[in-house]
């Protein structure tokens, strides 16, 4: 149910996915997105018919494991997923939620999707608020988000999160100096947000 939803309402608009051909998500990407569900940190909202209208998938983040994860990424066979993960690791390094906010672990808002028919109702903000409450209840002291579009960035701003780093897509290049993510406006940069929970 969740996979069908994000295939329909998240991936077709997600900058890192559509910025590299082919524009479809890789199986490894989908597997990574869904891997966090058992932690109980993710939240969804449904309409009166029990149909999903919004999904926010959240991962536990521990920056101390980043060097090991970066090394593992080098062995990933799928070039697109390897490229995306390399970029995400770079952003994690820049934001460094655990070191920056002096916490052992945090919760990362990873995938946010809302059915277009229900947009304009602050569903994205409500999902982030609920996920932040869940994180606090489970003992986490910080939340973070990598916002790959201006739309998710605006929601993070409304939640009172602080933008601590950003990378323009036009500046992220391969070893030959070629731009990797080819995106139309309004996709301009990926922004990293953090917030300490009380």
Structural class: alpha+beta
Helix content: 25-40%
Shape: globular
- Biggest sheet record: 6 strands, mixed
Instruction: Label the CATH architecture.
Output: 3-Layer(aba) Sandwich
Low-confidence stretches: none
Number of helices: 8
CATH homolog superfamily: Gcn5-related N-acetyltransferase (GNAT)
Q: Can you tell me the number of structural domains?
A: 1
Question: What value does the Rg take, in angstroms?
Answer: 16 Å
Top-tier CATH class? Alpha Beta
Topology-level CATH name: Aminopeptidase
* Arrangement of strands in the largest sheet: 1-2-3-4-6-5
Give the termini separation.
Answer: 33 Å
GO molecular function: aralkylamine N-acetyltransferase activity
Protein name: aralkylamine N-acetyltransferase
Pathway: Aromatic compound metabolism; melatonin biosynthesis; melatonin from serotonin: step 1/2
Enzyme class: transferase
